[in-house]
Amino acid sequence: MSEQVKQLPIFVYGTLRPGGSLYPQIRPFVARHEPAQMENFVMYSVGMFPVIFQGDGAVQGDLLHIHEDQWGKTIRLLDYIEANGQLYNRTDSYVASTPGKPLVPVWVYLTTTPVSALGPERRVVSNDWFRR
Questions:
Q1: What is the residue-averaged pLDDT of the chain?
Q2: 20 to 30 Å CA-CA from 82: which of 25, 29, 46, 131?
């Protein structure tokens, strides 16, 4: 990938969260992390990992702040892990790091799967992958 990607925190909501199964792959690049939530989104399970869609809820996750000198390497790794352009699309959005505080611009990976392809039994009612 030769594109320049603006450096923003990354909002993660599943296996890439601290404590998630894929977090160790990116941990060396993370300067710090903090809890956050993405308003007007809901979570579904597709088995081993979640996907989120616009909806009436707030998805719980974490903001990952990447070491500046590791940004290019990290975004390429995340694009690979998330199959950017296939399973997910990297999209810019906004999240709240603390309820009531100003929204923070972020990158987030949103699924390419249509919500209509998932049944209601796949819905993660808590909107928190760690509390499913």
A1: 94
A2: 131
Domain positions in the chain: 10-115
Tens of pLDDT, residues 28-59: 999 999 999 999 999 999 999 999 999 999 99
**For residues 8 and 17, what is the distance between their CA atoms, to the nearest angstrom?**
16
Are 112 and 121 in contact, with CB atoms under 8 Å apart? no
Which residues, in sequence order, are CB contacts of 3 under 8 Å at separation 6+?
none
The model's pTM is 0.93
Superfamily of domain 10-115: Gamma-glutamyl cyclotransferase-like (3.10.490.10)
Q: Write the CA distances from 108 to 3, 70, 119, 121, integer angstroms.
A: 17, 18, 23, 24
